[in-house]
Each structure stands twice: as C-alpha cells, then as structure tokens.
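User: My collaborator and I are trying to settle a disagreement about how two of our proteins should look. Neither of us wants to argue from intuition anymore, so we agreed to look at predicted structures for both before our next call. Could you fold the first one, then the second, and keep them clearly separated?

Assistant: That sounds like a sensible way to settle it. I'll keep them separate. The first protein:
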Amino acid sequence: MRLPELLRTAAFRLALWQGLLFLLVAAVLAGIVGWQVHMFGRDQLRAAIRADTQRLLEERDEPDRGGLRDEIAERLRAGGTEHTLIALLDAHGKRLTGNLPVSIDLLGLAPGWHTVDMPHGYYADDGDDASAALWLQRLPDGGMLVVGRDRTGLNQLDETLASAFAIASGAALLLALIGGLLLGRSYLRRVRVVGASAQRIMDGDLAARIPARAQGGDEFDLLARQLNAMLARIQSLMESMRQVSNDIAHDLRTPLTHLRQRMETATRATDAQALRAALAQGQHDIDQVLSTFSAMLSIARIEARERRAGFGVVDLSVLLSDLAADYAPVAEERGQRLATRIAAGIAVLGDRRLLQQLFANLIENAMTHSPVHTEIVLNLTSGGERHFLAVVADRGPGIPAAERTAVFKRFYRLDRSRATPGSGLGLALVQAIAELHGFHCAIEDNAPGTRVLLRGARAAPAGSGDLS
C-alpha cells in the first residue's frame, strides 16, 4: 500500500485528529500543572527569603543599623551564603554592606518583592539567564534591608517541565501517526475486500458476499452482514424478476393464443350469435390476463413495502370470525364444512384489507382442492403473550414435501393443477403479504391434505383466551 493512499484514509485522519486533540488537552493540563508547580516553588522560595529576613532582624545585637550591619558581615564571613543575596542600605540609598552585585540598581525599587537579572557569570552553574528574587523591607530608621535568593532551582524546574512536555508531546504525536498508519492500513484492507466483492457483483456474480464474522466483530462485520442481507434480498428479487419474465412468457401465451383464435373465429362468423359467442370467449381470455397482471401488480406493491405506512392494530380474532361467517355458507353449497377454533383477543399490527385477502386466499384455495363431504379447518391460537399461530387445513390431495417451498413462487403450479383455472399467483400473494407483516408462512402435511401455518407477533397482550 502506498503511503499517500494511507494518509488519505479516514482512520489515519481520525488518529491524527485524536493525537492533536490529545496534544491540546495535554498542553492545557501541562500549563495548569506547570503553573501550579511554578507557584509552589516561588512560594517556597519566598518563604525561605522571609525566614532569612526574620532571622536577621531577630539576631541583631542592637536595634540600629550598625548592629544589623555587623550581623550581615558576620554571616558573609562565615560562608554558606553563595546563593543568598543580602544588602543593607542607609536612608539615602547608600550600600553599607552585603553581597548583592553593585550592578543591580536598587534605587527606585519600592519595598516588596522584585525579580532582577543577575550579571553574566555571577553563578558558575546558572548559565546566561540567571535571576534572583529580592525582598526589600524598610527599616525604622529609613534604611532598607534587601534579602534574596537566586532562582536557579525554580528556573530549572520550569525548564524540566517544559522539556518533559515537549518530549511527551512528540512521542504522543509520533505514536498517533504510527497508529493512524496501522489503522489506515487495516481499514483500507477491509475496504478493498468490500470493493472487490462489489466489483464481482457489478460483473454479474450476484451470489458474491462480503466476508464477515457470523457473530460479534467490529463495525465492518456489522456493515458486511447488513450488506449481505441486502444483497441476498436483491439477488432474490433479481431471480424472481427473471423467473417472472419466463413465467409470463409461458403462462400468458396460452390465453393470448386463445384470444387470437377467438378473434379469427369472430372474423369468420357469418351470423350475430356466433360473433357474440366469440367476443364473449375473447372477453373471458382478456379478463384472465388482466387478473394475472392485477395479481402481479399487487405482489409488486406489497414487496415494495408501499402499504407498511398504513399499518394499524387489527383484531385478527374478529377478522377471522367475520371471514368464517362469510365462507361457511359457500362451503356448505360445495358440500364441505368450515370448522373454526378462534381464540379471542388476538391483535396484530398490519393492514386489515391485506390480511383479509391473505386468509381469503388460503380458505378459497383449501375449498378448491378439497373434495366434497370433507372438513376445512380455520384455527387461531395464542402462542403466549407475544405470538400467535393461525392454521388453515384441508383434506385434499396435499402437496409433496419437495414442492412445499416452490408453491410460494409466482406462476408455480403443481402438475395436477395445470388443468384447473388459476394463474399460480395465490400462494405467492399470500407469501408477499406474510413477509410484509413479518409473519412466517409454512406448509405441512395434514395426512391427508395440506396445513398452512402462519406464525407472527402480536400487537397487544392476549385477552381472555376463551375460544369461540
């Protein structure tokens, strides 16, 4: 990987910004700590100077200038004051004694604290910027006592703190840059994997997926799993589209061929009755084609999730009870019986009209494939406070196990059903509505016959649970 490419990665920029933010925070912290340490050192230095001053005033033999001057001279002769500065001035500002360099002008300085620069080379170990802190105290006779100490230790402490901060900042910035490069390399490698998978998909390999850990992982794994789910959905839709195109070409060819034959018959008709019969048959074929397209459009709208915005709480128990009341007389006319076992108080979140269409399709499908003197079952039971189970069962010929998944595809019809009216879109519509509502639809053997099971989440806690 080229360095310029790594420097342009978001991970490197993020690490760099974090490093700069760390430096800013560290600078503020170092400033606060340095200032506190400096003030502590300055206070300690001033406390030592005040103590020296107090001892000089307490140890003088006489309360006049001469006694204090002798005390200062005695101290200077005794030694040990190489970093202590003392000066005694009379009322006119004349120096009487002390070791304060004469180059330091004390005239005009008011009593109190002052910082002065020391002459170059005064202290052998102070370098070029030696300075001293002085305390000037007015004496009762008008003279001035000056006591001070050099600031070498305080200056060195400030320089040590500044150097430590500079070294730590440089190391932190270097580590941030190295970390950014490593992170950028890792992120860039992951992005290239995603890009390679995307390129394979653009080249036509819709089965390509982005590598991701099945559980856990980082944000790339989470994104990869979501993208893979999206790709699986896209692949399913593309395959469905190709299948639909093939099925349309196959299943609509028959009614369109019939329609052409009806038109040819109509053109050859010699009387009005034959013409009307041919037109009526042609109208029936057109209605069959329009019905097929209407069902396909309904499935397309449902799969596009256009109706989810209109969802509301639907009392599924009441809905199925109403459907049972509507279809029970129809079943009796066909020599069948509709048996129901519907638990009360089960509500779901969904579209009432679509749910009604879903169960109507299942009931009509069961009635179509059930022989006379058989029972069709419509059950709705509670699966706890959060789920429900709906079952529509018949005693027909059943669906082979190998085809129980395929029957949900568009235009798919069993071999024995090809001679019966229908487009093969009924169960496809059921599956589309179920997926829109988040229900799971499955087919089982009813020995004999077929059981269609719908499982889903409830919108509210169960009611009394009584069966009607």
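The second protein, kept apart from the first:
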Amino acid sequence: MTASPHQSPEPSRARAAGGAALARVGAPVVDLLSHIGDMVGLLLDTLGVVLRAVGKQRVRLGWSAAVSQIIRVGVRSIAIVSLVSGSIGFILAFQLSPPLDEFGQRELVANIVSVAVLRELGPLIAAIVLTGFAGASIAAEIGTMVVSEEVEALEAMALSPVRFLVVPRVIASVLSMLVLAVLADLVAIGTSATVSVTILDIPWATYKQNTLDQAKLVDFLTGVGKGGVFGLLIGLIACGNGLKVIGGAAGVGKATTGTVVQSVVAVILADLVFTAIFYALKLV
C-alpha cells in the first residue's frame, strides 16, 4: 500500500523540535570553542611579534607603551592589592588560631599561612584585582578604538593592531602580575605576622622560624610563575574581547563585562590545572 498524502506530520515535527533543541545546546559550545580558538590565535600572533623582536628582525615591541600600561594598570593596583591581601592575612591568622588551640599548636599559624599565601592566595588575589583594573580597562580602551574605527585605520596603513595594541598591553599585564604577586605574598604574610605577634601572643622568633622552616623556594617560585601566566591570560582575554567589539557603546560594555567574567574563570581554571600538575610532580 502506498502512503497517504495526508499522513500525520508528527514525526517531522518531532525531528524539527529535536534539531532545534540540539542547536540550542550546541550553539553555546561552538561559540565557546570559537572564542578559545580566537584567543589561541591571538596568543600565537603575540608570541610571533615578540620572537621577531627578540630575533632583531626590525620589529619594535613598543616599550614606551608597555611602561605606560604598567603605570596605568599595575602601579594603580598596588593599593587595592595590598588592602585585599593584608585583609586575607589578618583573616587567616584569626580563623586558624581557634582550631590550632585545641591541639596546643597555635604557633603553627605561621606554617599554614606561609604555604597558603605563597602557593595560592598571593597570586590569586593579585590576579582577581588586576582583572578589575587591567582587564576591564584594556577591553574598554581597545573596544572604543574599534568603535571609533582607529583599529581599522591602523590596518588601512598596513600596521598590525597586534603589534601596536596587544603586545604592549600583554607585556604590561604579565610584568605587573609578577610584581603584584610578590607584593601580595609579602603583605599577607606580614599582616598575619603582625596579628599573630601582637594579638595572638605568638613570639616573633617562633613565627619567623616556623615560616622559614615551612616555606620553600619552590613555593615562592611556583606562585610567582602562576602569577605570570595569570597576567598573560588577563591581557589576552581583554585584548581579544576588545578587538571583537561590535555594536557601538553597548558592545564596549558587553566586552568589558565579559572580560572580567572570562578572566576570573580562566584564572581559576588555570590555577586548578597548575595545582594538579604540581601535585603530580610532588611539588605540593
């Protein structure tokens, strides 16, 4: 028997609904992978410019622009990084004291704080603060250039936006993060030591010796190294989102918000990966 021309359309409707549902689920995944691909491409372009400059192939990195960016996004972050990291050191000392008192080991506050700050909290605090200063600022600045067609003008003159806009800002983000991570370490440990000695009645000699016994050079180096990677992620994400701005002022605002969210998520995920690697290598 031949099929009736008036056959029920239900199967085709179900297939259409299934396809639409799959598209709704798959579209964000495709967009995410495309965005990650764009960031990787931008990273490769940036590294290419840096390597050509190091190889003295008549490519200048624009150090004056990088220094200007360091002052604008790095130096201005010092106060807030110091405030936040100092507060963290203060909180850790007070929170750790009661449980350690139960075992009669209050002086071990120094051991725990030194490891936690050097390995994790120092670079992480600095990165999150720098995201607000550098990430949002860079994305808004480059996005405004895109909207006002300044980037298009660079390309029309055969000048690379990556070389003139991205590279100085990425260098500034990396160098700023290296310094801010060290600053956050010092301030957090210093604040914890001050609280421990003046309020928790831990002798300064004991606190100092416990810190030196517990904290190793590898703890400091891995923390600062992570800070450099965090700065690279923040700079790349901010520049990438700024260059992709569309839609005028609304697009600039969207890029700025997206940069902050994406940078924080990327920093946390990178920290997770580093922790897993260091654990596997017995460095933690």
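Some points you might bring to the call about the second protein. Residues 10-54 form the longest helix (45 residues). The CA atoms of residues 33 and 39 lie 10 Å apart.
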